[in-house]
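Take a sample.
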Amino acid sequence: MEKVGEESNIKVMGAMYRGGRIVTSKKPFTTPEEVKGLKIRVPAIEMYLETWKELGASPTPMGITEIYTGLQQGTVDAQENPMTNSYDFGFPEVAPYLIVTNHSYNPSVFMMDRKKFGEFPEDIQKLIEEAAQDAADYRSQYVVDIEEDYLQKYIDDGREVIYPDNEAFEQVFDGFIEEKFPYLVDYVERIKAVE
C-alpha cells in the first residue's frame, strides 16, 4: 500500500477483504477446456484480460451496469465478480450457474489525498489510520460472514453451484506470471511463502 501510495500521491490504508471472485454463467464449466470460447465479462484490467485469454476464453470489458443486459442479450455468456455483487446485481437471473472459482481475492482500501493527510497533526493521522483499520477489520469479517449466506441464496433460488477442478486451472497458468507479468514474480513468490 505504501508503494502504491507513494507512486500515486494517495494515502492508502485499511485493506479489507472484498470477497473471492466467482463466475456466474449461462454455460456450466468445471475444466479449462470447457472455458475455451466462453464470452466472459471482465473489468478493463490487463491482468483480468490476459488471464481469461490464457484459458482460451473471449474476455469482454464491460461496466458493471451493462452486465445484466449483456448476459440477457447474449453479448456475453458469463461474468465474474465477488459473489455478493453478482447476486445483488441480479446476474443469477440471467446466468444460472454459479461457478465457485475464487480465482481472485480482491481487497478494498480507504484512500485519501496524501498531501492533505500529511497536513493533519500526527495524532489525527494516527486516529484516521486506526479508524480505517477498524472499519476494514469490521468489513472483512462481515464479508466472510455473509458469503455463506449468499451461497445459500443462490441455492435457495434454484441456481446450480459448481466447484471447478482448480488443479487443472492452476496447471494452465504454469509460467504465466513470468511470461506476461515478470514485474510481479517477486510478489507471487512472497505470497506463496506465506504459511
